[in-house]
Amino acid sequence: MASVGTPGLHDPGRLVGRDRAVGGEPVTNPGTHHPGTPLIARVLLTDATNRVLIVHTIGSVPRWILPGGLVDAQESPRAAARREVQEELGLDVEVGPLLTQEWTPPRTPGRRARLTFYFTGPQLSHEDVARIALQETEVDAMAWAERDRARELLPTTVALHVGGPLHAYSGSTYYFEHPPRREHDHLID
């Protein structure tokens, strides 16, 4: 362990991630600096009729998505998934096994590739649903959607994880890798 005053773990100029970037520059938003590939964690939550819970985000690109978000520095993807469900929905749930992983290349200039972890979540009871309290700074709506309808509403890359035999959890984890976007892909999306 490094002692105070020498470069190492306790030297604020050497901290990376949560509070400082490489070289000691303070991070504008502590806890969200990701010098490498951004990690995202999402949770597939269902109800008693096997519908999928989706939330509508209000960020720079409003859209329907599964609950979840960025993994903070020093946080595991599973812990991030649980934290994000708590933040977005006000529910503290046990996050289940990893269902799928997905690598997505940058879709626009200046963006980075990302790695998303999709976890199974619990089947929410009527009592759980009654306790949902949306975090209005991140999501402005939620909906229960049949799987076919959820696949229509969700971004294409997310829709892959919402239906079919993958969600009758088999104990296997699936990995998806999307090809890099080509110059004219926007014409066929």
Automatic annotation (TrEMBL):
UniProt GO MF annotations: hydrolase activity
Short name of one Pfam family: NUDIX
InterPro entries linked to this entry: Nudix_hydrolase, NUDIX_hydrolase-like_dom_sf, NUDIX_hydrolase_CS, NUDIX_hydrolase_dom
Region feature (Disordered): 1-36
Required cofactor names: Mg(2+)
SUPFAM superfamilies named among the record's database cross-references: Nudix (SSF55811)
Keywords, comma-separated and alphabetical: Hydrolase, Magnesium
Composition bias type Basic and acidic residues, residue spans: 11-22
Residues covered by the Nudix hydrolase domain: 35-167
Domain of life (superkingdom): Bacteria
Family named by the database record: Belongs to the Nudix hydrolase family.
The name this protein goes by in its record: Nudix hydrolase domain-containing protein
Organism: Streptomyces swartbergensis
